[in-house]
Amino acid sequence: MNIAAAAAPITAQAFKSDYKPIWCPGCGDYSVLSSFTKAFAMLDLRPENIAVVSGIGCSSRIPAYTTCYGFHGVHGRSLAAATGLKIARPDLTVLVASGDGDGYSIGGNHFLHACRRNVDLTYIVMDNHVYGMTKGQPSPTTEPDWDSKLSPGGTGLRTFHPLVIALAAGANFIARAFSGDPNGTADIIAQAIRTQGFSFVEILSPCVTFRPEQREWKTQVRPAPVATTDDPARAARRIMTDDGFNIGVLYKGERTPYQPIGKGSKRPADLEAGFAI
Amino acid sequence: MSAKKVKKTASRKGAAGKSAGAGRRKKTATKPVDHAEFLARAWAMEVEATERYATFADAMDEHNNRDVAELFRKLSRIEQRHADQILEENFAMRPPLVPRGGMRWAGAEGPETADPGDLHYRMQPYHALRIAFGCEKHAWEFFTELARSATSARVRKAALEMAEEEAEHMRLIEDWLKRTPPPPPDWEHDPDPPVLSD
Predict the structure, then answer these.
(1) ipTM for the assembly
(2) Could you tell me the pTM of the whole model?
């Protein structure tokens, strides 16, 4: 039993650290941070029972802005670190924060296998279709005709389709949210945390600096016109045919989460000795 | 969607470069069912506005736009006073029960909550006041519509009172705007811009 459950109700504010975000004014990630903290409060979690793991990029700054345990890791390797943590400490609620560059390009292979392993993690990807921190290079989800100095005429490359990939690779919960609806996004994150196994939430989070046209996303998003399904074939058809602006839980499966067989028997000191030179 | 299709209407300035709240999504709120819920929503609206302005102030501070940061902080304090006033007059200073994930509205956010998409790192106090005016106007529209559609006389009366307060806030901000110099045409010009990919 979680001993914190009997304590006084907690507020979202309790999950916000004293560090002020340095994102650009207008960035969607501010609202995503708010959704994180609201989701934690909704679930009556406690900061000391949560770990937020991230890679590199604007979105990956999020652990520092919470009062939870945090690990700001290596580019694209947040899922690997989080998987190890969850296996070692299954009592923790582990969230992984990433962006479309960190998560789908540098960390693309980890993404596939995290879905396949189905460890009980919640993977939040703040997708703005651009590498913001490094000044606007096209990412895997950038439209092929996005014209910029760094990609004259556009890349011409087909966009990565993370939700379909997640479904095909075995993710147990797949949703899309929008940063402009922070309370709705908090609700989806809470559902993702509650769902056992690997939960994947793609959050459309505008980059107002390099993709100012994404300010219009607020007029384009809409609630998904279908109920959540547990049928992968039906989910695949829906996700393949939507335009990327349907918001909601699109798939919720019933796969049993990965559980390690037995427990490690070595003490940390023994492990350290193995690395001694 | 094709990037070209949406780029035509794109503005790097955001709504800071347009009229007040021009780019905002339409916001309406779920119709309260009784007087107690009405008051809880009125309070939650003010709290959400307080928090949003505080976030804006922090963001502007981080980008060294101190004048606008101070203005947003002032707006946050004003909204906090409104929230406290509702608490004092109706709840004996004990906050009403609001879902911990935040109040759910018919629109994405509360009627008085400013839209982050309206910000620009080089915006001026005038822009901030235009945003605030837009928020008060949305709140006034919300309470006016609520008064019109309420089935309870008590809720209608309270909604009309709130609408009148919001109208007064709009007048105050209008006066404030008159005393605030409008931005120069090149207000967004940055000799060392962050964007290299235009």
Answers:
(1) 0.85
(2) 0.90
